[in-house]
Amino acid sequence: MTQADFLTWLRLIMPLAPVVCAVLAARGLMHYFQLESYQFPGYFRTLRLNRVHALMPGLAASCVSLLMYYLADVLALRQGPGWVGIGFAVLVLPVSALAGLGISRALRERKAKKKFVFTNRVKRLYGVLFAVCWLVSALLNRLPWAVLPALWPLLLPLVVALAGLLAWPLEKLISEMYFRDARRRLMSVPGLVRIGITGSYGKTSVKHILGTILSEKYPTLITPASFNTPMGVSRAIRERLLPSHQVFVGEMGARHVGDIRELCRLVRPTIGMITSVGPQHLETFKSIERVAKTKYELINALPTDGHAYFYDDGALVTQMYERTQKPKTLCGKDPQRADVWCANVSVSSQGSAFTLNIKGKGSVECQTRLLGEHNIQNILLACAVASDLGLSLKQIAHAISRLEPVRCRLELIHHPGSFTIINDAFNANPIGARAALEVLRAFPKRRIVITPGMVELGQKEAEYNRDFGRQIADCADIAIIVGKNRAQPILQGLKEAGFPDENAYRVDSLDASTQLLATLVTPEDTVLYENDLPEQYQEA
Hints:
9-stranded mixed beta sheet; globular; 6-stranded mixed beta sheet; alpha/beta
C-alpha cells in the first residue's frame, strides 16, 4: 500500500469515528425523545430542563473524536502505512464505538423510573440518526478544515431532533397501518360494546373499577396500565382483543387539542365517560377551557343513540352534562340532581362504605378497600354504566367489594412491624393531590409526606405548588420535599401556613429522601408518597 492509498483510505474512515461514537452516545437523548412520545415540543422542553444531560453526550463524543483525529495525525499520517498506522486505522471505529457506549453508560440514569425500551420505532430512528450523522460528517469532511467532522457532535440534541423529523413520515405511515388494523379488529367483533373514558384525573381508576364490575357478567377487555394514546390503544386491541369479548373499555389520554378525537376515530365508542376536568397538562393546553374542550371531543364522537356519563362536580363537567343533547347520566351526591348517587358515606384508613342509589332500580349497601371519598366518585360512574348494561345491584355490590387499588394510585402498603405507606406516586395533579392528603388525614399521627411537587402546570405551576404546600401543612406532621428549584414554592407554602421549620426538609433526590426517612420514621407512622417525577423532570 502506497502512502497516497493509505491516506485516502484513512480520510474515508475518519469521518465515521464521530458518527459511531455520537450515535451510541445519544442513548440518553433518545430516551428523552421516547419519554415525550416523540413529540418535539416536549423533547425541547426536556432539553431545557436537563441542559447538562442534554449537552454532555455530544460534548463527550466531540472530545473523543478530536482525540481520534489528533492520533490519526500523529501516529498514522507521519508514519505512513506501517504497522502502527494500519493498526490505528483498523481500531479507530471499534474504539469509537466503545467510547460511545462508555459515554452512554456513564450518563445513563441508573434508577430510571420509566426504562428506555428498544422498540422497533427506536431501531428505525437509530437507523435514520446514523444516516443523518454520516451525511453531516461526510459533508464536513469535504471542507478544508479537517477538524470539523469531530465538532458536529456538539449539536447532537438537534441532530436527534432532525432524525426524528425525517423519520416522521415513515412512522406516520406505519402507525396509520397499525391504527387501521386495530380499528378493523375492533369493528369485526359483533355486538361489542365500546366504551371510552377520559378526564384530567381518575380515568385509569375508573377503567379498572368498570372492568372489575363488568366482568361479573361480561368478558371484558380494558386497555392495560396507562395505555391511553392511539398507538397504546391500538397495540392493546391488536394483542389482546378476542372474538369472545363482549365489552371493550379504552382509556383516552390527551396532552393536545384533538388527541381525544383521534382516539375516538380508532375506538368509535358507543358509551363515553368523563371523570373530571382540571388543571392537568396546562403546559400544553394553556387553559382549563381548552382541557374541557378536548375532553368533550369524546361526547361529540358518540353516535346519536350513544350514552354519555358525567360526574356532578358543580363546575365544568356539570356544564358539559347540561349542554349534552344525547342520552346522558349524571352521577353525584345530590339525589335531587343525580341519576346515580351515594348516601351514608363513611371513609377511614381501611376503606369506604356507602349506600349506592340508582334511580328507578333501588339501593344497595357497598363496601370497598379503596381509599378516599374521591374513589366513591369513580365507583359511581362505573356503577351507572354497569347498571345500564344489565348488571343487578347485587352483582355490582359484590364487584365493589372485590376492588383492588391500582398500583401507585393510593395503594396502601402495610409492612408488619413497620410503618404504613400510601403510594400515590403516579402523576400527581392539584385535585388528586388534595384528595390524597385528605386520605392521609384519616390516618393517626404521625403523618409524613414525601413529594417533588407537580409539573406540567404551565405558568401557574409555582402557584399550584405553593397551594400544595399549604395543604400539606394542614394534613401532615413532617414534610420531605424532593428537588431544588421546584421545591421552593412548596416550602414557601408550608411556611405561609405556619408549618414548623424543623419539620420541613428539602433533599435533592428520592434516594436522599429514603435515607432521611430512615432517621425519622417510627413503626406507627404513615408515609404518603405523592408523585414521582419521570427522568425528564429531574433537576440536575
